[in-house]
Amino acid sequence: MSANEAMARLSQVMSVRQLVILGTTIAAAVIIISILFVRPLIGMADNGDFFREIHNMGLYYLTDNFDDRHFSYFNKDFGIRQYPYDQNTLFISSLSLLIRMGLTLDLWFTPDNLFDIRMLAVIYVIVFLAAFYMLLKQASEYLKLPILILACMAGISVFGDVGYVAYFNSFYGEPASYVFLLLMLALVFRMLQKQTPSIPDFILFMVSATLFISAKQQNAPMGVFLVFLCVRFMFLRQDKRWKIAVITLTACLVASAALIYGSMTDDIKHINQYHAVTRGILENSTNPERDLEELGLDPKFSILAGTTYYDQYVMEHTESKLLNEEFYSKYGYGTIIKYYVLHPDRAFEKLDLAAKHAYAIRPEVIGNYEKSAGLSPGQKTTIFSLWSSVKLFIFPENFRFILLFYAVYYGGLTKLYITRFRKGEARGMMGLEVLASIGLIGLSQLAVSFLGAGDADLAKHLFLFNVSFDLMFVAMLVYGLNQLYVKLDIAQKVGVFRWKQKRSISG
Fold first, then answer.
1. Measured distance CA(80)–CA(90) in Å, rounded
2. According to DSSP H, which parts of 295-425 are helical?
């Protein structure tokens, strides 16, 4: 059978729109597979965060060289201890569950006591492609065909960028946050499109939501936005069974968020506390001694300004008795918030600093290649990096632009919301509320980034801001183009753009 005959048969059972969506998803799969699974392999080097995840899973590095383990090179293989599921500390994370699933896959296919991190990437790829396909399918219900094609191209370019995809080959919490946020959105819009949303769909949504908020403890506070959406879901159906399911699962989500946030161990708290002061308040301070006194700390700690918790050579060990007794125990997030409230100029300075890094999807100090690739330490890939590269140059790097961007976004949502309200379109209103929640998730990350960790590793801490920003940008772009296309199409049909035929001179 020729290719033309195959396409002809396929077109008989699938519409053009379905072919476009399927073709785009297949194209995304090919691109992602070529990045993650074809040599030279692309992934993310460890910045020091891997240990708390892999230690409890019984995994260990195959090298003791600090530079080979951290920042410079991506490591594909990890050793598996005899008892890989022994846990020595309480650290609740959905990543632990995903790593166990990856370990199970690896032991099925390669019983060599080595864990290939690409097994974890397989799980992320499957979830991403499922969410990507569902979102495109839902968008196709509203978009004109030419705009749908443009939306598919934008979707691949933005959300399939190596800046996002490279995280799949890592033990960071960012890829789980990314794919489960997309899956949540896909499931929400699917429920809103159905006349009668199903309980299985809602269960899948809640599972995705739980995996999202537990991907990183930084995500736990975002359970507030999800609870609001769950309350709104109560009104999608009036039967008792639905309401019981929504109430029960929402209560479970709240409990999960509280448990995740409450399970934060001292070492994680100390990392965030340390950076919030040394790389936040003290960084670029004109009077660090006075700032420390305002926090209730001894001015002698001003020598720590600009240092990080992970520095290889330190003036004082970050978990020393001195720091535990006279530093970490003397202040908390409330103290830091109070400082910024009393010093709004410093708060805006930090927001502006965050804005300067807000569009960097890819951390500068983290390499993408294995050492065996023979490239220089910390080398970053340029494969399929158009969006993450261009994004750094097309958006102004200041907080005022972000405020303007949000004003335009929420201004458009408000206008549409009022229109839906007047027409009594409850589901349309809920869809706009979901889009509004995306913006709130992104905005919250700007504040959390410097409150929780100063300017340390901003590109990673602002990862979800990037995801939210990109979702908002693509939504505005596609909606604007679709509205323009509809207006031009209507204008052409009523004859606005028809050229009048010239009359001949002879009459």
1. 20
2. 321-326, 333-342, 344-356, 386-394, 399-423
pLDDT tens for residues 395-434?
A: 998 889 999 999 999 999 999 999 999 998 989 999 999 9
CB 493 within 8 A of CB 158: no
Question: Which tokens go with 193?
Answer: 């499109």
Write out the two tokens for 229.
């959406």
Helices H, strands E: what count in the chain? 22, 3
Give burial (CB, 10 Å; 0-12/13-18/19+) of 307: buried
pLDDT for 13 equals: 58
Under a CB-based contact definition with an 8 Å cutoff, are residues 307 and 314 in contact? yes
Count of CA atoms in the C-beta half-sphere (13 A) of 1 = 8
Q: Are 52 and 67 in contact (CB under 8 A)?
A: no
Pair of tokens at residue 55? 């230690």
Q: Is 27 left (phi over 0), alpha (psi -120 to 50) or beta?
A: alpha
Judge whether 454 and 281 are in contact, CB under 8 Å: yes
Distance, CA of 450 to CA of 455 (rounded, Å) = 6
The answer to whether 304 and 326 are in contact (CB under 8 A) is no
If phi > 0 it is left, if psi is from -120 to 50 it is alpha, else beta; for residue 265 that is beta
What's the CA gap between 222 and 212, in Å, rounded?
9
Residues 278, 307 contacting (CB under 8 angstroms): yes
Axis-axis angle for helices 145-159, 118-139 (nearest 10) = 160
Which strands, in side-by-side order, build the sheet including 77-80?
A: 59-60, 77-80, 114-116
Which residue's structure tokens are 């074809």?
38
* Torsional sign, CA 171, 172, 173, 179: negative
Tell which residue, 117, 243, 161, has the closest CA to residue 474.
161
User: CA 450 to CA 347: how far, in whole Å?
Assistant: 9
- Tell how far CA 111 is from the center of its chain: 33
Tokens of 170: 């890592």
Cα dihedral 204, 207, 208, 209 sign: positive
495: number of Cβ within 10 Å: 8
pTM confidence score: 0.88
Tokens 């804005």 belong to residue:
355
List C-alpha distances in Å: 358 to 317, 460, 469.
31, 10, 9
Q: Burial of 389 by CB count in 10 Å (0-12 exposed, 13-18 middle, 19+ buried)?
A: middle
One-letter amino acid at 220 equals A
**Going by C-beta distance under 8 Å and a sequence separation of 6 or more, which residues neighbour residue 17?**
140, 145, 148
Per DSSP, the three-state class of 162 is helix
Cα distance between residue 306 and residue 141, in whole Å: 51
Per-residue pLDDT at 285 = 85
Q: Which tens digit of pLDDT belongs to each residue from 328-382?
A: 888 887 888 888 889 888 888 888 888 888 888 888 888 999 998 889 888 999 9
CB atoms within 10 A of CB 507: 4
